[in-house]
């Protein structure tokens, strides 16, 4: 049953509709749906028809007055239970920014136009596409949950246009020039410095990272059970999160499926690891009562014996070695991953093979370094061919 009635405001006459929605099981009273603000009877009848149709199908959504901020806060409490601490930290910062825009608005009042303007403003403010995409992802999760709970009828994040970053080959090559990585001669000097003047395990850690291209978190989480000495392979299935705290580290799964991989290493690395394990076992036996026997390959061998290395410590150690080696480049442990990419490209390894080895199939930096390096190699090839032909040209 439904009926219409007129009411008057300072802005003029309007029509109110009331639709019966059955008995409320919790109170035993009749439920009624009221809508206001219709200017004509035709609009009012259309609204009644739509509500009655949705009630019949059981798909009617009672729009709520909850604010975006309050709903997002409830959503985040549950969301935090199933994600990594690093993700929680990132999402917290993003959510704070989104609340600054939508927080006090009723979630049901946020339209697709409102949301598109939010995306456009991020782009105008200079946010990169990846940063905008991260914020869009958080909003999509929130509005999707609101729709599932029948707080809203429409998800304003659907069919939104995200800005696209169009890069040419020239753009990628320019980007590569701005990415620091070591040339092979520089890498040789750096590793020799680590061998002669490095602190405990510096040489083994830096050599291993340079020869595998592993991320620092993957390297710190690596265990001896991941090394197959006979087949000369390294299985990468996890990463370390420690937040600069030895006692509260966490071993976690990688962020993406492509990060889980098995890579081949040469006999030089296998021999180095075998010798390193022998030294580690001696320390483990000597300090067996205090050594944390958790099977970490590059475990601490001084303080916090047996505990995994912290990624921040790798950075401090690298800065020391760079100063001692005389290499004037502002690089970080992740730079050895870029260096590995460059040297693989120079050796003639294809881009898909490099991406598979690095565990990152869609990485613009990897692509740009590859294009930049192979361009140089191709130029050298052309010169070599030309020099060869000079001997036979008349």
What would the keywords be for this entry?
394 residues, mainly alpha, DNA polymerase, domain 1, hpI Integrase, Chain A, 3 domains, three-stranded antiparallel beta sheet, 8 strands
Offer a quick outline of the entry:
A three-stranded antiparallel β-sheet has the order 1-2-3, covered by helices on one side. The chain has 394 residues and is mostly helical.
Please explain how this structure is put together.
By secondary structure, this protein is mostly helical. It has three domains: 56 residues, no CATH class; 81 residues, DNA polymerase, domain 1 (Orthogonal Bundle), CATH 1.10.150; 146 residues, Orthogonal Bundle (hpI Integrase, Chain A), CATH 1.10.443. It has 14 helices and eight strands. Helix 3 crosses helix 5, helix 7 crosses helix 11 and helix 8 crosses helix 12.
């Amino acid at each position: 049953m439904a009926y219409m009635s007129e009411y008057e405001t300072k802005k003029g006459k309007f029509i109110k509709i009331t639709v019966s929605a059955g008995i409320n099981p919790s109170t035993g009273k009749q439920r009624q749906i009221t809508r206001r603000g219709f200017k004509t009877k035709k609009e009012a009848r259309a609204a009644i028809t739509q509500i009655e149709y949705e009630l019949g199908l059981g798909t009617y959504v009672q729009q709520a007055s909850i604010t975006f901020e309050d709903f997002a806060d409830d959503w985040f409490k549950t969301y935090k239970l199933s994600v990594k601490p690093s993700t929680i930290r990132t999402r917290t910062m993003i959510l704070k920014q989104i609340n600054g825009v939508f927080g006090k608005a009723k979630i049901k009042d946020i339209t697709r136009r409102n949301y598109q303007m939010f995306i456009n403003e991020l782009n105008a403010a200079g946010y990169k596409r990846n940063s905008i995409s991260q914020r869009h992802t958080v909003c999509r999760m929130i509005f999707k949950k609101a729709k599932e709970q029948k707080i809203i009828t429409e998800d304003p994040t659907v069919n939104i246009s995200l800005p696209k970053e169009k890069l040419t080959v020239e753009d990628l090559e320019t980007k590569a020039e701005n990415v620091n990585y070591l040339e092979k001669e520089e890498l040789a000097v750096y590793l020799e410095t680590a061998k002669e003047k490095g602190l405990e395990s510096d040489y083994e850690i830096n050599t291993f990272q340079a020869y595998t291209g592993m991320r620092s978190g993957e390297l710190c989480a690596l265990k001896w059970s991941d090394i197959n000495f006979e087949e000369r392979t390294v299985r990468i299935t996890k990463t370390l999160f420690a937040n600069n705290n030895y006692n509260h580290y966490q071993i976690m799964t990688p962020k993406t499926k492509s990060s889980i991989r098995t890579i081949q290493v040469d006999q030089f690395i296998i021999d180095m690891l075998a010798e390193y394990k022998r030294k580690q076992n001696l320390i483990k036996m000597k300090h067996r009562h205090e050594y944390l026997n958790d099977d970490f390959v590059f475990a601490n061998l001084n303080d916090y014996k047996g505990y995994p290395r912290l990624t921040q410590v790798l950075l401090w150690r690298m800065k020391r070695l760079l100063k001692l080696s005389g290499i004037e480049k502002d690089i970080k442990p992740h730079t050895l991953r870029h260096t590995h990419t460059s040297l693989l490209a120079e050796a003639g390894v294809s881009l898909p093979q490099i991406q598979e080895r690095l565990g990152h199939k869609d990485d613009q930096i990897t692509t740009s370094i590859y294009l930049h390096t192979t361009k140089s190699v191709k130029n050298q090839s052309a010169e070599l061919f030309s020099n060869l032909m000079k001997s036979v040209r008349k």
